[in-house]
Amino acid sequence: MPAGSSNKRERQYEHIKEGAEERGASEERAKEIAARTVNKERARSGEAKTTSRTSTRDPKSASQRGGERSHSGAQGPTRDQLYEEAKKKNIEGRSTMNKQQLRKALGR
To answer: What's the structural domain count of the chain?
Structure first.
């Protein structure tokens, strides 16, 4: 946590960190998740000295978004992730499909 952060933010950081560890994240990853989440919330509420554009202009907070943007990087979800989604939706022929075909079958 940044120096001078409030007791509320310290509690929030610990709560998020413990939750991430309970979900199986390593201690380092849990710390990173907690720090990023708390820093974004600090930026949104005007507590941070510097902020990014997405921190202040995003209509949803990180907690409200709940991983909505996960795996939406440059290439999106992996083939295995798409395959698992296709499996849940019982799409036939999924085992022989490549990433692009899985995307199409899933309507992405």
So the answer is: 2
Domain that holds residue 41: 7-63
User: Within 10 Å of residue 102's Cβ, how many Cβ atoms?
Assistant: 22
Residues in the chain: 108
pLDDT, tens only, 5-37: 788 889 999 999 999 999 999 999 999 999 988
Q: Angle at CA 15, nearest 5°, toward 1 and 28?
A: 60
The answer as to whether 1 is a domain residue is no
For residue 3, pLDDT beyond 80:
no
Place of tokens 């022929």: 93
Pairwise CA distance, residues 84 & 94, whole Å: 9
Which is more confident, 38 or 58?
38
Q: 50 and 84 share a domain? A: no
